[in-house]
Amino acid sequence: MLTAADYQPPRWLRNAHVQSVLGSSPLRRRQGELRLAATGARTTVHLVDAGDGVRLQGLHSTVPGREPRGLALLLHGWEGSVDSSYMCLTAAELLKRGFEVFRLNFRDHGDTHHLNEALFHSNRIDEVVRAACAVADRFGRRPLVVAGYSLGGNFALRLALRARAAGLPLAHVAAVCPVLDPSRTMEAMEQGVPLYLWYFERKWRRSLARKRQLFPRHHDFDDRTLGLRMRALTQWMVERHTDFGSLDRYFDGYSIAGDRLSALDVPASILMAADDPVIPVEGFHALSLPASTRLEIAPWGGHCGFLLSARLDGFAERWVAERLVAVAAAP
Fold first, then answer.
1. What is the DSSP string of 236-291?
2. Global pTM value
3. How far is the C-alpha of 214 from the C-alpha of 113, rounded, in Å?
4. What is the pLDDT along the chain (331 residues), one digit of tens a residue?
């Protein structure tokens, strides 16, 4: 089975920023689309009842004429979507290995802003848990496994913490570069190369502008609000659209740093890059993890990059697929 030690990119790919930028490039997204199409899978769009009137959207893919060995639920990162390159590439790997795959859009991600009036925020874990239960009930495949990238990795691990109480038959969870401590992630972006802060600010502003266009009576903020920098805009959102009251309490609400994963009773695998420019690796060394959780830290990879060659082949999607397939193959 692949481990982080097997990830040996060529020297020119050992730069964290090259990894991070190329990993989310249009070329890589096109590669994901092509590899997913090459599986021959049939993909259908589904609305998922996430409780309390919340509707989420996802894509279900399965290869016709083949009995799936299990169901894999994939979760994207912040301001990503079911069509993000890593989502399509991971889906393609899992489909090739016999799984059926459900890629879930978080609220206000992809083209789903119209489905719910209230804004997305990172503490909306309850609706993701309920959506996961609904997906498991609808397709009824066992084992059920979950994988997520970046913020999706954070959601995947929090989902695993709540799986037993929710009655979700989760067999394994895999997380790539998951957000651990949101406060430290914010600081890292503010103090690091400006590219990442600019990238996320630009995508979030577009998302908020779309929400305002769809629900003008509920979202009447002006362009000055949209022009705020990341920290100030997050604080505005927290104070007006959540019950947390302060940025610190909001960040603490979805932190999984320190000993917060020590109660995991679902086997888990975590892949991290030591040079991740968005999520500081120091927090991973301080984690308190149960014996059933395996943490692997590669020297390179950037933020969810893990590219192998000029063809933009990825290590992370193979790593995820091997871990989830091993669960299905276990007696």
1. HHHHHHSS--SHHHHHHHT---TTTTTT--S-EEEEEETT-SSS-THHHHT----T
2. 0.97
3. 8
4. 899 999 999 999 999 999 999 999 999 999 999 999 999 999 999 999 999 999 999 999 999 999 999 999 999 999 999 999 999 999 999 999 999 999 999 999 999 999 999 999 999 999 999 999 999 999 976 789 999 999 999 999 999 999 999 999 999 999 999 999 999 999 999 999 999 999 999 999 999 999 999 999 999 999 999 999 999 999 999 999 999 999 999 999 999 999 999 999 999 999 999 999 999 999 999 999 999 999 999 999 999 999 999 999 999 999 999 999 998 777 6
Q: Tokens 């779309």 correspond to what residue?
A: 210
Tokens 């009576």 belong to residue: 217
Taking residue 109's Cβ as centre, other Cβ atoms within 10 Å add up to 24
β-strands 100-104, 71-75: how paired? parallel
What is the rounded CA–CA span in Å between residue 219 and residue 12? 46
Check if the beta carbon of residue 283 is closer than 8 Å to that of residue 180.
Answer: yes
Q: Are 43 and 61 in contact (CB under 8 A)?
A: yes
